[in-house]
Write a structure and sequence with these properties.
The complex is a heterotrimer of chains A (192), B (549) and C (475). Chain B has 549 residues and is α/β, with parallel strands linked by helices. Chain B has helices at 22-33, 49-57, 61-65, 130-134, 144-158, 187-196, 239-249, 298-305, 379-388, 393-406, 447-466, 528-548, and strands at 5-7, 10-18, 38-41, 92-94, 161-162, 180-181, 203-205, 252-254, 258-264, 270-276, 282-292, 330-337, 350-354, 369-374, 407-414, 423-431, 437-442, 470-474, 511-512. Chain B is globular and about 70 Å long. In chain C, a hairpin with a 2-residue loop joins strand 7 and strand 8. Chain C is globular, with a radius of gyration of 24 Å. Classes of the chains: A mainly alpha (192), B alpha/beta (549), C mainly alpha (475).
């Protein structure tokens, strides 16, 4: 059977909006060691703090962080400078909410969200230029890791799923997001 | 042990099978087991399981969440299959519902059972009698009882697990129990059934081509939740297993061997097929019996391409029905967030299905439906939705979790009727890597299906209300389900059908076309088990024919 | 009768053989009115001796009907039908004949059995237990009228008379004697291990003539494609660091996670025998095994389960075209594509241990990589109670994918290095050897030794001939 869903969140458009056109491209020297000469890159501690704050996870893999950064830089000429501007904001913010507020003020809200999306989905960008970076370690799977494994991996032995799932530990969905995601209810109609 | 003979690149075998999917493989395995020589010609390549699994993991998030189940499979440049990301336009779709016929199938050794959900359904007794019972569609020239023993054999050949409680069977007319009892339900299946069953929707366990105990050396399913696009551990029935079994017995399977021509003699018996190898050299395979089992799109395509002087309309096509009556279960989806956690995604992809709407008097007016409770992890869509809300940190984590564990996706199948204007033909302009005509498909559904859609939507709204659904959404564009049927339709009258009750071509005494093509009615359930049963029925007939030859 | 006993023990064992035979016959007379009790005791003893392990075909063979082709380094040895059938089975065996077969490896018709039948262990079984076993096989086992295929080893091993010489060298025709300085529990364990479970048959290395090396008992040995590890009490090379409870758990369930999971012949031993032992017998067996004199492998400095750890390759591999399926696959890519679904990307296995961790696991940390290779090629299949431990095989006709030698090498070396923390590396030859069922022993390979063996057989045959003629001369 075949199924289709809407496309991914982070479009090329958002990445291109990271900085106004014509901005001078500067690769932050501390941001990514080893990127220039092609050696395996490790991510800078400040950048990783930015990532941790935004994602809500503290034990992030620096190698993935570096690969995500490199993918952003590869996809957008303005990415490096955007991250250079965003990182100090993270150092000053006490939590992700404050960080996002400050980022939006600086016109870097979309940059921050793009970074969050990359960590959670494991992919930077969309369409044919999308750069997948991680799969099993994509953070989205960690949110339900007590009850689900990422597809292609077993959670337990045969029939493990017959056991009761873990406690929800989150509230049920409510319609608070109705304004952003409108209800789509198709009424019955006969097609000609 | 009898083996095909080769000389100068040409081959001869008692049975020549074109196509190594579930139908071709089962027939090859039976005939080689009966001591005859068997040659299988497969257009596509041999696959490496790990490579395909890794291709999936290496895909972008967007493609995976959009269900690109085709893109991870390597293709031979001479045996193209449809691709969607981006589209390769191998199959050109026209007609107002052409968009709903965008099929995914695999041309490789083992065929499309590399990626399916392994749902192994039987047709109902009444499904064989749609015209007589409901005044729509056609009657099959065979009955459920004719096919029932073959359903049992197909289930046993594929290692199917199914419910042995008759109250949970659909249908319950069985001469033998399932060899393995049903795949256990996860919490989500159980809870969903608890809620909807009192209202007559009848959620039942889906019989599946997998087991939760090792089966003849096949590993037990451990719920990798990846059935489509591929089972990483080979626990799910995959025709490549049957191909291996046939090869072990002495069948010869040639991959990357694309059949393009069919030779016939003065009595219109098939004498040989001709194929291109990967170097584009042509070879000839002679035989006593021929089976073409390339799926209900590629089989008619081949029959039309192979038109010869004696059969100018195409092989087996004196009726002009080859390629016509094309059907697939038109599908759509209903998604919502339930008011309680269901934790879908634990276990195999599809374990329970609402079959209440599968049958009833209404079928004289509009299409039946079935509603599969997709047990596919909702984490991907949940993440897309949560990210759209601009969330970060803890709020984001919680929202993804909330949407993943409360999210529901129902996959609804509708029943098309066989209509002769729905057909596959040969493109006049597009050519594949070998210069053979690509397929064109014209597809237009009549009101029977659209009224069935409307009825299903009402049922879905009711079901949504039972769960206090929010963000309730029903897709309006119909999608394909990869269950191609009807294009070499079975019938007793050679003027309006392509094959007889044994799936033998009316026009050619030694050519059989089993699989989805002969299926005279679609029902609403996945077609594979019926195809396999038809294949085994054909195998019995072919075996008898070879014994008397 | 007498000629046969001369036949079976060339010179000095003759009087002993006769005495034992008669002694056995006297004690072994069935007690009146207790036949069912004997048969039930015999049933348990047959389980403890794991008769079914060889005498029942694993693929649905009838119990004890034989026909199981056991691969030995000298060729396939087909197990016999030991049901009480008179056609094909042992239905015509008297108790004395039964005892002679089990203890001395001599069939009713006088031919020798190959020591694939572990009569060198069973010879230690007590008279009372032999009697119970006889009662069980004769009364409680369903007769199956099937003649299994005959074993035919290549020359000169098809000359069963060669076993006469071998037995004279290596068969000590003595019953188990308890050690008065040890507890009853220890002695029970010793009896179980030495007489019935015949642990040494696999775990003790063998000499050139393929007899157990008595100076190196339990110090580990190849068994066809597998390796039965050192189970002496050495804290580095053996199981000296295991507690008794841990060993009991392993014997009963076949697993002690993450250290060890029974596979190959040990899986069969657990499935057929050890899981059914009474808990006091398991305690006794464990007590005994943990007392085995330590034997250290001098090249070993740490236990087999103390190195290695989780690995991470995802960050390096993901999002790039995979090399799995290519001519030169990356070991990590193969691991990811074929193994990680169950054993997880980190190698940690699943939390319920059904798919075990690959680090701190003796299969990947050992100097002997045979078990890793064999697990990949042949899989693991072990049933305890209702639970079936199962790893699919990646050999011919795999349901997952048939791997080439090169692929097995690549993925094994990755696993050894990344998870096992081991410096062991395997090569294509190791895989080919494993597929063949293990290395060919010197005995079968070297023409010179063959020649010696043939000479010994020749001498033995002459001696028998001469002795028989001498006997005929006497009144």
């Amino acid at each position: 059977m075949h199924r289709s869903e809407s496309t991914a969140t982070i479009s090329r458009r958002i990445i291109l909006r990271l900085l106004p056109a014509g901005a001078f491209f500067l690769l932050g020297p501390a941001m990514l060691r080893g990127l220039e000469n092609g050696a395996p890159a490790t991510a800078d501690a400040d950048y990783m703090r930015l990532c941790s704050l935004l994602t809500g996870f503290s034990n992030l893999d620096p190698e993935i962080g570096a690969r995500l950064y490199a993918a952003f830089v590869h996809l957008s000429p303005t990415a490096a400078q955007a991250f250079t501007r965003l990182t100090p904001i993270a150092l000053q913010a006490r939590d992700d909410v404050a960080l996002m507020a400050a980022a939006r003020d600086a016109g870097l809200g979309d940059t921050a969200l793009a970074l969050v999306a990359a960590w959670y989905t494991g992919t930077v960008g969309s369409g044919i230029h999308a750069e997948p970076v991680s799969y099993a370690e994509a953070l989205m799977y960690r949110t339900v890791g007590d009850g689900l494994a990422p597809p292609t991996y077993a959670f337990g032995g045969p029939a493990w799923w017959a056991a009761p799932p873990p406690n929800a530990d989150v509230s049920a969905p409510i319609t608070q997001h109705a304004a952003t995601l409108p209800l789509e209810l198709e009424s019955a109609r006969v097609r000609s | 042990m009898s083996v095909p003979t080769f000389s100068g690149g040409d081959a001869d075998a008692d049975l020549v099978v074109v196509g190594s999917g579930v139908v071709g493989a089962l027939i090859a395995d039976q005939i080689i087991g009966s001591g005859r020589s068997v040659l299988v010609l497969e257009a596509g390549p041999r696959l490496d399981r790990a490579q395909v699994v890794e291709n999936w993991r290496d895909m972008s998030f967007e493609r995976r969440v959009s269900s690109d189940y085709q893109g991870l499979y390597p293709q031979s440049p001479f045996a193209t299959a449809p691709l969607n990301f981006p589209p390769n336009d191998y199959v050109h779709l026209t007609g107002k519902d052409g968009g709903s016929f965008s099929q995914g199938y695999i041309r490789a050794v083992g065929g499309t059972t590399w990626h399916w959900a392994a749902s192994c359904w039987r047709h109902l007794r009444v499904d064989f009698r749609m015209r007589s019972t409901y005044g729509v569609g056609r009657d099959w020239p065979i009955t459920y009882d004719d096919l029932e023993p073959y359903y049992c054999r197909a289930e046993e050949a594929m290692g199917v697990s199914g419910p042995n409680d008759p109250a949970r069977q659909s249908p319950s007319n069985r001469s033998r129990p399932y060899a393995s009892d049903m795949i256990p339900w996860a919490y989500g299946d159980t809870r969903f059934a608890e809620v909807v069953n009192p209202h007559g929707y009848r959620s039942v366990p889906i019989p599946q081509g997998r087991t939760v105990q090792p089966w003849n050396g096949r590993p037990a399913c451990c719920g990798n939740n990846n059935c489509q696009p591929i089972c990483p551990i080979g626990a799910m029935y995959n025709a490549v297993h049957t191909v291996q079994a046939a090869e072990r017995k002495g069948a010869v399977v040639l991959a990357e061997s694309v059949v393009y021509a069919i030779d016939t003699d003065a009595n219109n018996r098939v004498t040989a097929v001709r194929w291109y190898d990967r170097e584009r050299k042509s070879h000839r395979a002679t035989g006593r019996a021929f089976v073409i089992a390339c799926n209900a799109l590629e089989t008619p395509r081949l029959l039309l391409i192979a038109a010869n002087a004696q059969n100018p309309q195409g092989i087996a096509n004196r009726s002009d029905q080859v390629g016509r009556n094309l059907m697939d279960h038109s599908g759509f989806h209903c998604t919502f967030l339930a008011n309680e956690p269901l934790w879908l995604g634990r276990g195999p992809a599809q374990s329970s299905c609402l079959v209440g709407p599968r049958d009833g008097e209404f079928r004289s007016q509009y299409s039946a439906n079935k509603m599969i409770l997709n047990n596919i992890s909702r984490v991907g869509p949940a993440t897309q939705q949560a990210l759209k809300l601009g969330l970060t940190g803890t709020k984001l984590k919680e929202e993804i979790r909330r949407r993943a564990i409360h999210g529901v996706d129902l996959s609804i199948s509708l029943e098309p009727l066989p209509e002769s204007h729905n057909r596959v033909t040969l493109s006049e302009s597009r050519r594949d890597g070998l210069g053979l005509a690509c397929p064109d498909v014209h597809y237009e559904l009549n009101d029977y299906v659209h009224r069935g859609y409307d009825a299903a939507v009402q049922q879905l709204q009711h079901i949504g209300s039972l769960f206090g659904a929010i963000e309730f959404n029903v897709t309006t564009a119909l999608n394909a389900n990869n269950h191609m049927m009807g294009s070499t339709i079975m019938g007793s009258d050679p003027r309006d059908s392509v094959v007889d009750r044994d799936c033998r071509a009316h026009d050619h005494a030694n050519l059989w076309l089993p699989g989805g093509g002969p299926m005279t009615s679609a029902s609403v359930v996945n077609s594979t088990l019926t195809m396999a049963a038809l294949g085994l029925r054909t195998a019995d007939v072919v075996q008898r024919m070879l014994e008397h030859a | 009768m007498i000629a046969r006993s001369v036949y079976c023990s060339v010179i000095e064992h003759l009087p002993m053989a006769i005495v034992c035979m008669f002694a056995g016959a006297a004690i072994g007379a069935p007690a009146q009115g207790d036949t069912s009790g004997d048969a039930e005791r015999g049933r348990y003893l047959a389980v403890a001796g794991d008769c079914t392990g060889c005498h029942t075909r694993p693929d649905g063979g009838k119990p004890f009907a034989g026909g199981y082709a056991i691969s030995s380094p000298l060729g396939a040895i087909c197990s016999t039908n030991i049901t009480p059938s008179r056609i094909g089975g042992i239905g015509l065996y008297s108790e004395a004949e039964f005892v002679r077969a089990v203890r001395q490896g001599i069939r009713r018709d006088g031919a020798h059995l190959y020591p694939a039948m572990p009569y060198t262990a069973y010879t230690k079984v007590s008279d009372a237990d032999m009697h119970a076993l006889y009662a069980y096989f004769m009364q409680a086992v369903t007769p199956v009228d099937l003649q299994p295929p005959r074993t035919s080893l290549p020359f000169p091993f098809n000359l069963r008379v060669s076993m006469a010489v071998w037995n004279s060298l290596f068969l000590s025709n003595a019953r188990f004697t308890p050690d008065p300085n040890r507890s009853a529990q220890w002695n029970r364990g010793a009896y179980l291990a030495e007489a019935l479970e015949h642990c040494g048959d696999c775990h003790t290395p063998r000499n050139l003539l393929m007899a157990e090396q008595t100076s190196r008992t339990y110090s580990g040995s190849r068994v066809s494609a597998w390796y039965a590890p050192n189970i002496t009490s050495d804290p580095v090379s053996g199981i000296g660091t295991w507690t008794r409870d841990e060993l009991v758990q392993y014997l009963k369930t076949g697993a002690l996670h993450p250290k060890s999971q029974a596979a190959g012949g040990m899986a069969e031993a657990v499935t057929n025998s050890l899981q059914y032992l009474r808990s006091e017998d398991l305690d006794a067996l464990a007590t005994y095994l943990l007392s085995i004199a330590p034997i250290r492998d001098r090249q070993q400095t740490r236990t087999d389960d103390s190195s290695g750890g989780p690995a991470r390759y995802e960050a390096r591999l993901r999002g790039k075209p995979t090399t799995a399926g290519s001519e030169h696959p990356d070991g990590a890519a193969l691991y990811s594509g074929y193994c990680a679904s169950c054993h997880q990307p980190t190698g940690a296995g699943t939390p319920d241990h059904i798919y075990p961790a690959l680090f701190h696991n003796t299969a990947t940390g050992s100097r002997h990589a045979e078990n890793l290779i064999a697990a990949i090629l042949f899989g693991v299949d072990r049933k305890t109670g209702d639970y079936r431990a199962f790893m699919p095989q990646f050999g011919a006709d795999s349901y997952v994918q048939t791997l080439t030698d090169a692929q097995v090498v690549s993925v094994s070396n990755y696993v050894l290095q990344a998870f096992g923390g081991s410096s062991v590396r395997i090569a294509v030859g190791d895989v080919a050897t494993a597929r063949r069922g293990g290395p060919t022993p010197l005995l079968a390979r070297t023409p010179l030794i063959l020649l010696i063996v043939v000479c010994i057989i020749f001498i033995a045959t002459c001696a028998r001939f001469v002795l028989r003629r001498l006997r005929r001369v006497q009144p």
